[in-house]
Amino acid sequence: MQGATPLANADSVDGMASLTPEAFEPALLNLISDWLGPEPTAVIACGMVGAKQGWVEAPYVAVPTMPLAPPVLVKTKSSVISVHIIPGLQQPNPADVMRGEETQIAGFLALNPGWDGVICMPGTHSKWVLVSAGEVVNFQTFMTGELFATLSQHTVLRHSIAAVGWDETAFFEAVEDAISKPERIAARLFSLRAEDLLNSQPKSTARSRLSGLLIGAELAASRPYWLGQNIAIIGADKTADIYASALARQGAPATITDPTRMTLAGLTAAYRLTKENT
């Protein structure tokens, strides 16, 4: 990075699932060695690298709090890098945690100073985050994406769910059904299989209905967050569009923002914070 501008990027499949704590530094150096000079280069990291099973634990900070706490310095063997890890956030009651999302939230607030409202972060574990006066007030996580993957790939529904395809009408019908009658979702899920067996429901329709049921249940439970609030969605893929369209049907317009841009802005803010504290 040069200020807030990316100069180059690199990626790797290596991560917490495959690395021991001692292996993080060599994996990082393998990626960025061509960028390094004789003087220490600042490295700002976020996400699961700061978990107990990661490189070095960056302890959670309890909400309400600013999204960025002072990053934790990592003791490295190499003298050409100076690594800091951004802490995640925790909520004691009801119990909840995040790692990585706090950096995107900080980036969003840096780019939108004075903004109050709710940030939706769809994904494997979707998060709804209430932000006020520059602080994360509280948040709630939903396992919507993971439930979709598990139900569509590892239950009896796998025989009736297409890997691709989209039926918008079926999706919106399922969203409305789940929002109005969330207590019936377990029965509605099995009906996806029954509709296939008895009525030859297209598997792409079943996929759309499954998505609608799960997102509708999430919207029903998160209504206290988004109802009557400014809403921003951090996400640029099809999933963000789906959430935005579902919210629009409920009279709750949302603004979609790019997650990469928010992450870079958050990392930049964290870098500036480390400079202020040294």
* CATH homologous superfamily title of one domain: 2-keto-3-deoxy-galactonokinase, C-terminal domain
The number of helical elements comes to 9
| CATH topology assignment of one domain | Nucleotidyltransferase, domain 5
What's the end-to-end separation, in Å? 19 Å
Question: What can be said about the biggest beta sheet?
Answer: 5 strands, mixed
Task: Explain how this protein is built.
With 278 residues, this protein is an alpha/beta fold. It has a domain at 142-257: 2-keto-3-deoxy-galactonokinase, C-terminal domain (Nucleotidyltransferase, domain 5), CATH 3.30.420. The protein has helices at 24-32, 101-111, 144-154, 168-180, 185-199, 203-221, 223-226, 238-249, 259-276; strands at 41-45, 61-62, 72-73, 81-85, 89-91, 96-98, 117-121, 126-132, 135-142, 231-234, 255-257. The strands form three sheets. Strands 9-8-7-10-11 form a five-stranded mixed β-sheet, with helices on both faces. The longest helix has 19 residues, at 203-221. 34% of the residues are buried.
